[in-house]
Structure formats: structure tokens, C-alpha cells
Amino acid sequence: MQTVLHINAGEVWSGIEQRILTISKLLHNKEFNIILAVSPLSPLYKEAGSYNIPLLSLKVGKWKFNPAVIWKLAQFLKTHKVDILHTHRSSDHWIGVLAVRLFGLSGQCKIIRTRHNFTRIKNNRINNKLYMEWTDRIIAVAEVIKRQLVDENNISENKIITIHSSIDMGKFKGEFDGKKIRNEFGISTDTVVLGMIGRLREHKDYPNMLTTLKIIIEKFKNIKLLIVGDGILESQLKSMVQRMELSSYVIFAGKREDIPQILSGIDIFALSSSVEGSPAVIKEALIMGKPVVSTNVGGIPEIIQNGITGVLVPPHNPEALANDIFDVINNRNKFLEMARKGKQVIIDEFSETRLAELTAEVYQGHD
Asked: Does 3.40.50.2000 match the CATH number of domain 169-349?
């Protein structure tokens, strides 16, 4: 049985951490011995412990060249005879590569890197070494990310495989009463609720969504925007809402664990991002049968087929986003049918089982 160590520098709960947990809980003690090297401050540390997944307390942080962390990781890799080191972020990728190469572990331990985000890698000598020579296999979470690595960084297509992120289908089974969410926030049953779920970070482009809302309420005032998530831009966005005189139309719900319940209470799911990989939240909205209007960025067109399972609009274009949201409001049945088709796509292509099976095939390629 191969031993696989996931290393992750993140101390947040995002799609990256959810993906690592999914792979670990489905493969550990079945086909592989899975271990996670994560910070004890990370929510992933606690979640993995609840599934009895072995843990190495390793606080990587953002510094890519911490000698103490590199040494600790190298000793663990050597002692536990780790076959595959699976990295997920820039800092843990570097830490992992240095631990393997500086301590003579290249023959024992292969390195797999998952590229989660649609962000460009600078073409320089050191990055070329990192990806072309020092990394054995790359997993892209969307085909557009793979194409970018091939076309812009000249990485061999045979070295990269696309495996989309999944969602936990089990969380979305059962009955959810959308009235509870509306009652919680004092939203009447006849009000159209536009939902946006995601961390309050720059790449989600919440100002685009707020400008879109401003355009909508010029013609249609019976609407609320429910923003679910927390992050470094929270106070800035709340100030923006006040300046734009949108306080009576915008609700900040903060970070929530009851996403299925939240989705049951909205009418339309919207995403205004300028950059994305393969966002789980779009898949979750479709599983809940909600019409989706999203910017056409990153791997989103690999999830949404425009005009068939949802609506895609150009980024940084609040007028286009507003027009399509209007269209959904005015043609509800048409877009509910799109959502129904989208739900079947998610069931067929984005299950946790499929993610685990495809990842296992990559690991098995390094027997």
C-alpha cells in the first residue's frame, strides 16, 4: 500500500481544503495510507482528525524557504517511507520540493502538484525547473488551467491531467425549508433573493455584484442580495454598500456552515468573479436546483453550458450581469429547466467518488 502525504499551507476552509479532505476520507485505508501535513490552526486539521486520518502538525505559512519546516518534513518523509508528496499551494510546493531534493529523497518520493487557481506562473528559469523537472505530475482542477500551463509555460501535456473538484452530494439530500432562511433575515416570500456565496476576497469581484444590484434596482426594487462568507474585504464592502445607498437591499450573512439551507432560501445564484478555478459553490447551487448566472472565467464554462444549464456573462460587465438576472426574474420557468439539466450534469460528472477514483489513478501511476 502506497503512503501519500498531502501538505497544505492554508489555514482557512476553502475549496482546496474540502478537496483534500474528500480525497483523504475516501482513499485512506482502502487503497492508500493517507497522511495530512497541515497547520494545527487549520480547520482541515480538526476535520481530518474527526475521520481518523493521520496528521502531521506542520505550520508552513507563506515563507517558502523555512529551513526548520523543510528539515521536519524531510525527516518525516524518510521515516515514514512516503511514496507520494501531494502539494496544493505555492509555499507548500516549494517546501516539499526542497525537502525531497535537498535530503536525497527523489528516488523514494514523487511529487504531485494540484493547481487549483487560474493564476499565471511567471516564465523564468526557477519556475521552469520547479514544474518541468522537480514535479512528477500536475493535476489541474479545470481544463483551462491545463491549457494555460501547456500554452504559456510549455509544460508537456502528458504531464498534466484535469480532475475537477467535487461536491459532497450527501449534504444536499433531504428536505430544506427556504422559509427558515427568509424568516431569519426578515425577507418576505414575494421578494426575489439573489445569493452570492464565497470568501470576501478581491478575485470574487463583489464591487461588480454591487454595481449590478444598483442597475437592477433602478427598474426592479423587490430584490435582496444575500452575501454569504467572510474575509479581509468585509469592512470595505460594507462601507461600499453604504456609499452606494444599498443598505436596504444587501444582507451580509457572514460565514455559514448550512449552505444547503442557505441555497434553499434563494431564487437565483450569482457569481461575479474575475478569476476562478472550478468553484464548488456553482455545483452546489445547481444540485439545489437554483438558476445560475455567472461570469465566464476560469473553469466555470466547464461546469455551466451557456444557455443550456445556466447563463455566462463577461467579467467586469455589470450591465450584462444585470440584464441576465432580469431575464431570469422574468422567465423563471425557463431557467428552472436549465437548472434541472445542470443538476444532472453535476450528479454525473462532479461526484466525490469520481474525484477520488481519478486521483487514485494518478497515484497508481507512480507505483
From this structure: yes
The CA distance from 221 to 238, in Å, is 20
Q: Beta partners for 200?
A: none
How far is Cα 315 from Cα 296, in angstroms, rounded to an integer? 6
Q: DSSP assignment of 43-61, as one string?
A: HHHHHHHHTT--EEE----
The predicted model scores a pTM of 0.82
**Side-chain half-sphere of 197: how many Cα atoms within 13 Å?**
26
CB proximity list for 65: less than 8 A, separation 6 or greater: 94, 98
> Does domain 2-166+351-364 match CATH 3.40.50.1400?
no
The owner of cell 438558476 is: 291
Contact 105, 260 (CB under 8 A): no
Q: Are 314 and 296 in contact (CB under 8 A)?
A: yes
Distance separating alpha carbons of residues 367 and 227, to the nearest angstrom: 46
How far apart are the C-alpha atoms of 226 and 265, rounded to whole Å?
A: 10
The stretch 3-10 carries a mean pLDDT of 97
pLDDT tens-digit profile of 133-163?
999 999 999 999 999 999 999 999 999 999 9
Please answer whether residues 260 and 176 qualify as being in contact, where contact means their C-beta atoms are separated by less than 8 angstroms.
Answer: yes
Please provide the distance, in angstroms rounded to a whole number, between the alpha carbons at the two ends of the chain. 9
Give Cα 205 to chain centroid, integer Å: 15
Q: What is the DSSP letter of 29?
A: T
pLDDT digits (tens, 9 = 90+) for 174-194: 889 999 999 999 999 999 999
Residue 62 pLDDT grade (very low, low, confident, very high; cuts 50, 70, 90) = confident
Q: Looking at the chain, which residues constitute the CATH 3.40.50.2000 domain(s)?
A: 2-166+351-364, 169-349
CA 21 to chain centre: 13
